[in-house]
Amino acid sequence: MKVGDTHYRSIWYDSDKAKTMIIDQRWLPHEFRVVELDTLDEFATAIRDMWVRGAPLIGATAAYGIAVEMQRDASDKALDAAWELLHETRPTAINLRWALDEMRQALGGLSEGDRPAAAFRKAEEICDADVETNRLIGVHGLEIIRKIAATKKPGEPVNILTHCNAGWLATVDWGTATSPMYHAVKDGIEIHVWVDETRPRNQGAQLTSWEMNSHGIPHHLVVDNAGGHLMQHGMVDVVIVGTDRTTATGDVCNKIGTYLKALAAHDNNVPFYVALPSSTIDWTVEDGVREIPIEERNDREVTHVFGRLEDGTVTSVQISPDGTPGGNPAFDVTPARLVTGLITERGVAEASREGLLGLFPERRSAA
């Protein structure tokens, strides 16, 4: 997608510099910074400390991390150690393990001399595939928005509520939940987006709002607790969110607060869709609430807020009393019964085992 007049991916390899480049998302929306990642430890830090975030982008970053390490040491020992180091950075997003497994499988049978070049080719392949996957999610999600738009009066927008950031900043390009929005605008459909702030990291306020601004999409930033009120008053036509892990039975694990939005949508008969690449499906998990590990992050993210002061200084400030600890579960699980449908690169599936297997029949033998 574009920043100003320049097209960017969220991660790319700069062949002139021979460096992997990322948009350092910690500074958005106040500063746009592009940084180089040079070592395996820097890739691990970028994932763990959320320089990059979003399940697909985490996976892509890990793939390039493996590739960079293979330039330093292409041995089996180094490959296994890099896999372990990167895998431990974020436990919830399944794309991380998926991408690492893809890299290890691609490199496992190669000689050490062939591994560095092959690793970069595979990382680039993972990134290119992510872009096309998210484009197709947008194509299928567009049909949902188009049907709602057909029920509207002339000039009346389709009101979409989203939670956290499942935009192009969370993927290599296009985004998951935002891809249908971008496609709708491209198709000439009027939309308006309710952007949840998404405490405690405020990815909605800082990132989704920045994306909407950058692409001229009408939107309003709302506090996390406003969603139910908006739905009660008929101000939300559809909810579209992303997911960091989806079970084989259709449960979805997404940013903390998603479950509450799903409950409100269910109570007010508002369609609740989840947009996801198939790499986010964990076919080994049946019960999301019981089986998906929920990342518990530093309590400072709860007790402090990052932002820009009136004098332009970008900093963090404490909002809680000294001595008050913060609890910080980063994700929650929305049961399949609350999900209207799963928007994938192959189409829209019912949130159930049969629904998913209908789009991915090759998984039946493993089911």
TrEMBL record:
Its EC number is 5.3.1.23. Belongs to the EIF-2B alpha/beta/delta subunits family. MtnA subfamily. The keyword Cell inner membrane does not apply. The record marks C164 as: Transition state stabilizer. Catalyzes the interconversion of methylthioribose-1-phosphate (MTR-1-P) into methylthioribulose-1-phosphate (MTRu-1-P). Also catalyzes the interconversion of 5-deoxyribose 1-phosphate and 5-deoxyribulose 1-phosphate. Part of a bifunctional DHAP-shunt salvage pathway for SAM by-products. The gene is mtnA. The active site is at D244. Pathway: Amino-acid biosynthesis; L-methionine biosynthesis via salvage pathway; L-methionine from S-methyl-5-thio-alpha-D-ribose 1-phosphate: step 1/6. One of its GO terms (biological process) is L-methionine salvage from methylthioadenosine. Pfam families: IF-2B (PF01008). It comes from Hoeflea olei. This is Methylthioribose-1-phosphate isomerase. Substrate binds at R53, G54, A55, R90, Q203, N254, K255.
